[in-house]
Design brief:
CATH class: Alpha Beta
CATH architecture: 3-Layer(aba) Sandwich
Order of helices and strands: EHEHEHEHEH
Largest sheet: 5 strands, parallel
Strand content: 15-25%
Shape: globular
Helix content: 25-40%
Distance between the termini: 9 Å
Oligomer: single chain
Amino acid sequence: MTRVVLLQFDTDPGCAEHRALVAGVYPEFAEAEPRWPLFFEALALHRPDIVVISCAKLPSHGREAARYINEGFNTRNMDVLLVGVAPNERARTHAAAPESEIIEEDGLADELRTLLADPRSTTARG
């Protein structure tokens, strides 16, 4: 089972940085675009504990993917981290996916480590 899935577009400005940050913490991660049905298929295939979604390239796609994951019967227990959320998009993103955590990109690695190590996290129940 892959515990981390990264959802981002290859044309995302922070694509390589996100990939490197996630790989530095959890090298066996999977990646897909936050576009329906690609992200749904990746989640069904990998059944991750943590989903990292970049909202930098197309914020609406990131918000919708997070909303779907938060509300889905089979996905609602997954930890969802949103990175690359512009300051003027924070309120809209939080309203669309209130169960997701909006984090700064420089805090992504630390948050992944915390979730992977926390015994109360859905991730640690593995």
